[in-house]
Amino acid sequence: MTWTPINWPGAHIVRDLVKMASGLFIWAQSIMDYLQMHDNNYEVVLEQILLGKLSQGSRSLDSLYIQVLLEVIPEKSAHYMAWKLLIKDILGIIIAAKVPVEQSDLIYLMGEDESEMLKAKVAHAILKLSPVLSVRPETQKIILKHLSFSEFLMNSEKCIDVDFFIDSIKYTQIIGINSLNVMLKSLKFNMYNFPSSYERNDDVKQQLLSKVHNYIAYSCIYWVEHVLDMDLERDNMVVESVKLFLYKKLLYWLEVLSMQKVLNIVPIFFRKLADKMKNIDYTLAVDLEDTAIFVMKYFTPISESIPHIYLSVLPFAPKYSYIRREYLHLYTNILQVQTGLEEKENPLLITMKEQSRILSVAISPNGNQLITGSCDNTIKIWDVQMQQVVASPLQGHSNYVTSVAFSPDGKKIVSGSGDMTVQIWNTDTGKIFTGPLRGHTNWVRSVAFSSNGKLVVSGSDDKTIKIWNIYIDQQAINSLEGHTDYVTSVTFSPNGKYIAQVQRIKL
Prior knowledge:
By secondary structure, this protein is an alpha+beta fold. 40% of the residues lie in helices and 17% in strands. Helix 14 runs antiparallel to helix 15. The chain is globular, with a radius of gyration of 30 Å. The chain starts with 10 loop residues before the first helix and ends with a strand. Mean pLDDT is 85; it is low at 53-58.
């Protein structure tokens, strides 16, 4: 409040408010925000609170939330239900959005036509919702002040005014549909007015980033995630919108992802979308998969300089790919490749070269990294998209590294070696987590993690299989013997109860 009498509201009233809060700090905080909103008549509002008009404790919090929502609606408004719907839509978008959005983004993600009247209504609603919403001053992003407010809105038993009840799945779908519409309407060639093909993104990013509005950037980055949450078999219009986007706007979309440094989402989410599309539109599913391959193959030029999407990448699109068919004819002044083109996307995405002979390779659970075990006695961690080693080689073995594997969470690596040891590594630090684990009397040929990541199995030329607890740096917890020759491969069953092994058999 701007001004209150000294010692207001008095110790006895504070004690009553503490009792009414029933131990809920969020109730106390919300009451203070509510009083702040009623700066001109805070004493009347406080009296209503003390008289129990808003109930007490957790029930009081629900009543308070309803009261805050209702007070957004201007007094004597002739459009009472329209205001309720607008409030619901604003909060539905804020809750369903993958990241906090700005006030100016809401209208577009709601799918409404921009007008000065609507902008004023949204601004009024956000201001009146200040007891439950906060606007970050440095970014203007809107966030909920407490998780209990979203839980209240999405719980039909708590939110007794059904006009405010929010179905988060419905609003996820709304954002997905409207994001597609935003891209179809807004994406165009040279989105950032890139000055020269001789420039890299990083050279001009600061001066160009603001040329694409936040709601467009949000739509480009998160539309696939929203669409993946939808029942596409029942929504043919969304499938048609995806097709229109893919065949008319793809390259302009890549411009935005390149500048925003999020190009890695294409192979991750397009493969998921392709899987979802296979039983709906097989051709579209194939084209989505091909797009993932295309972006992975040309990740470096696309990510480093927007003009080279057209100058260095598009000319080499496979002969019979939809990318070549739909886009090449639009740009007549670029390189025209006449011979040597692949007929279709080659499943071989990339080739990374290592100086030493590689004996084992494994890919991380999220697909972003791979590891190699080599004859130089080291393990190397590679970034799949950057196509290069991203950390110093892991050193600790004294002989060839014959087998490597990631843990299920991708945070650890197990390695086996000709030095007869097994070692566990931390992928973040590159340091040894457990080991060297000793017990084999000949080369370790194969290693694997259990599904819970707590156990490791190893197979060796000493004709044994050993099971290790990765948190115990000592001898194996079990040794399986009786094989008649080298154990060349081992793995756990998905439930961790069984081990499959392969041994060499002399004929």
